[in-house]
Design brief:
- Helix 12 links the parallel strand 6 and strand 7.
- The radius of gyration is 21 Å and the shape is globular.
- The protein has helices at 3-12, 15-21, 25-31, 43-47, 52-56, 64-79, 125-133, 155-159, 181-191, 197-211, 227-241, 259-266, 280-283, 305-329, 338-351; strands at 90-93, 106-109, 114-118, 145-148, 166-169, 246-250, 272-276, 288-293, 296-302.
- The chain has three domains: 3-76, no CATH class; 90-306, Rossmann fold (3-Layer(aba) Sandwich), CATH 3.40.50.300; 307-351.
- The protein has a six-stranded mixed sheet, with helices on both faces. A three-stranded antiparallel sheet has the order 2-1-4, with no helix packed on it.
- It is built from 15 helices and nine strands.
- It is α/β, with parallel strands linked by helices and 352 residues long.
- Bound molecules: adenosine-5'-triphosphate.
- Adenosine-5'-triphosphate (ATP) binds at residues 96-98, 119, 121-127, 141-142, 276, 295-296.
- It comes from Methanolacinia petrolearia (strain DSM 11571 / OCM 486 / SEBR 4847).
- Residues 87-320 form the ABC transporter domain.
């Protein structure tokens, strides 16, 4: 079957049936922010309700995404038994910032490295992650180019966004199918050829619950999970099941989950991690940080020894704030002396 042969099936069959036939298509839709489309319709019909600008970000439109999707299905079908190809590096070659000025950057990232992406709100942090995710070839608004192992990725590799090369944890998670958490994890485990499905599902579930503030059960519907719970589930799923050598994380700190533990889990196994963040604790945990300004990469700074030493102090401050946050969550009243006590503790933490 070629990608052309998938075409008829895709234009004639409701999305929910396609998702049952090809479970990895769930990832494809989520990666293209199409997780929320009406799955009772065929893909062309469902796309009529989608804002064309959203697809433009991926260099696609209502028609080309159907070919793109077919090629993805073909790529998955033809080599889904293979392990993901080894990745020795990702190179980001600068394009242009929002004012059209040249970005003078060529940054190569290797397995085991964690890179944070910092910059003001709206400066273009998520855009950089999207460029990496779609392996931009000067065909996105930034005109950046992404090389894999020092070379231009072939078309098949570019389309294969369904969990082989790049795993993306975005700020919002959309689930298209009304599955329970257990069914969702089982479906992923099977589609990723995991050997002991039951064991992995159990571990994933426990891990997700340890990250999430409010616990959920394996029988909870994924569509009923809160934003933080669904991110916790996807982090556990990515950490324990995904073989993707590259993990992209968009602002994990907003998810209300244990973010330090999440990064620790995701960083295992020599992966390349790029995460956009406003959180000093996460930014300084990285090996380098990319500073974005006005849509362009303004600087790439290695984390200094001094910054690493400060990380311990920042962590103490963070723990104090976490304590306050938890008190608020539990409905406790923050009394008059609390802020003074907090400042006191803060002061002493710097002397310790
Ligand atoms: N170099 C660029 N050229 C043109 N448009 C750009 C460029 N970089 C970013 N943009 C656009 O600017 C907008 C804001 O970017 P983005 O969402 O990536 O910001 P952000 O830093 O992630 O913001 P936040 O911190 O609020 O999540 C997006 O529409 C993005 O496509």
């Amino acid at each position: 079957m070629s990608s052309y042969d998938f075409y008829e099936e895709i234009v004639e069959t409701p999305v929910c049936v396609i998702l049952e036939r090809y479970p990895l298509a769930v990832d494809y839709l989520a990666n293209h922010r199409l997780g929320g489309i009406d799955s009772s319709k065929t893909l062309p019909a469902a796309l009529l309700d989608v804002d064309p600008e959203m697809l433009e970000e991926f260099g696609l439109d209502n028609e080309s995404i159907i070919d793109h999707f077919c090629t993805f299905l073909e790529a998955f079908r033809s080599d889904h038994d293979d392990r993901p190809d080894a990745i020795s590096s990702i190179t980001i070659i600068g394009g242009r910032n929002k004012s059209g000025e040249q970005e003078n950057v060529e940054l190569t990232v290797r397995p085991g490295e964690i890179i944070s992406i910092v910059g003001p709100t709206g400066s273009g942090k998520s855009r950089l992650l999207e460029d990496i995710e779609c392996m931009a070839q000067k065909d996105t608004p930034t005109l950046r180019q992404i090389l894999i192992n020092g070379t231009v990725p072939d078309e098949m590799r570019r389309f294969d966004t369904g969990g082989k090369l790049v795993a993306q944890l975005s700020q919002t998670m959309n689930f298209v199918m009304d599955l329970t958490v257990r069914e969702f994890l089982e479906m992923h485990a099977k589609s990723r050829m995991v050997s002991d499905v039951e064991d992995v599902v159990e571990r994933c579930f426990e891990c997700a619950n340890s990250l999430a503030g409010e616990k959920f059960s394996p029988e909870t519907k994924v569509t009923q999970l809160s934003g933080g719970q669904s991110r916790a589930l996807m982090i556990a799923d990515t950490a324990l099941m995904s073989a993707s050598p590259v993990i992209l994380i968009d602002e994990i700190e907003n998810a209300g989950i244990d973010r330090k533990e999440a990064i620790r889990l995701l960083a295992g196994n020599e992966k390349i991690i790029l995460m956009s963040t406003h959180d000093p604790l996460l930014a300084l945990r990285a090996d380098k940080r990319i500073v974005i300004k006005n849509g362009g990469i303004a600087k790439v700074l290695p984390t200094t020894e001094n910054e690493r030493r400060n990380l311990e102090k920042i962590e103490k401050v963070d723990n104090i704030l976490l304590g306050l946050r938890n008190s608020l969550r539990k409905g406790e009243v923050i009394g008059d002396g609390v802020v003074e006590e907090f400042m006191d503790e803060w002061f002493w933490s710097f002397l310790r």
